[in-house]
Amino acid sequence: MRSIFDGSNLKKINVIGFVILIFILTFIGLRPINGRYFGDTETYDLIYKSYSTNSNYHLETGDFLFDYLMRFLSNFLDINSFFLICAFIYIYSIYFSTKKIFKEYWTYPFVILVISLSFWSYGVNGVRNGIATSLFIYALTRSTIKSQLLWMLIGIGFHKSLILPIVGYLLTLKVKSSRSFLIFWVFCIPFSLLIGSSFQDLISAFFDDNKLDNYFYNENTAKQFSKIGFRWDFLLYSCLGVFSGFYFIVRRKFKDLFYEKIYSIYLFSNAIWILVIKASFSNRFAYLSWFMMGLIIVYPFFKQLFFNNQYKLFGNILLIYFLITFILDFILIPN
């Protein structure tokens, strides 16, 4: 049986990868304007039409680059073209990143990222968040710290929530070992169980964001989310990334600076989410770590040989990861 890592197999696999890339781009970018099935798509459409029909219209979201892009493009493009451009930035940032990190093996990491939980919803619903996090991944592939910070700042321009993983990134410049971040992550679980609600007040005061307050406290918003309180299901899902990094770095002594960095950022961002886990719509905060989970799981498989028949094990992991995403996205998490 031919290995998926076999060079003679890569050309076929990468052709499939390009087909998937183009399909996802057009499927997300040219989706119908329908709020029932595509979340905030209808809301974006209303804002976009307001920009195109009223030159004095201005919506203050604090995400200045996204606002400017919407206002600028509304002068000469329709809403479908706007969504297609957003989808291009969102998806191609991931494509370019996987090409940079994994070279000719980019298809497998690309697939695991696009089948990750919330990839779809942040392509059609939380569009600004999705673009920002994709740009963050792209930033991590740049060769200098200045270039990385520049792209991260661009990401903040699309959605300011990116500040959280950026803080994690800045911490990794000083704290090189991921063990400290892992200890912090573990500590946050009992801390959240005991006094998590107090931390929600602190976060809300820090951001001073009415929309954020709405996620935390608004009863009507909470009714849209079938489960509130301490989300053990989300925590178990987060453990997929935590365990993967722990296994390869601690148990298998995998030495890779890039992997240590993304694992540490993941732990930090996920730990902060755990502190506000009882809030309604806490999955929106969890996404600020979940978007990196696929990379954490897949990265070591393409950098070092750890197992006999490693390609078979990776194929099984890919299938299990997809099934977990399917169960969470379509069964446990309400639309």
Mean pLDDT: 84
- Provide the β-strand percentage band: under 5%
Principal-axes geometry comes out as globular
How many E-type strands?
A: 0
Radius of gyration: 20 Å
Distance between the termini: 41 Å
Tally the helices: what do you get? 17
The ordered string of helix (H) and strand (E) elements is HHHHHHHHHHHHHHHHH
How much helicity do the residues have?
over 70%
Task: Find the structural class using helix and strand composition.
Answer: mainly alpha
Low-confidence region ranges: 215-226
The largest β sheet comes out as:
none
What's the layout of helices and strands?
Elements: H1 7-29, H2 41-53, H3 64-73, H4 79-102, H5 107-114, H6 121-124, H7 127-140, H8 145-158, H9 163-172, H10 178-207, H11 210-217, H12 219-223, H13 232-251, H14 257-275, H15 283-290, H16 293-298, H17 310-332
Helix pairs in contact: 1-4, 1-5, 3-8, 4-5, 4-7, 7-8, 9-14, 10-14, 13-14, 14-15
Give a brief description.
The chain has 17 helices and no strands. With 335 residues, it is mainly alpha-helical.
Note down, in words, how this protein is organized:
The protein is mainly alpha-helical and about 325 residues long. It has 17 helices and no strands. Helix 7 (about 125-140) packs antiparallel against helix 8 (about 145-160) and helix 10 packs across helix 14.
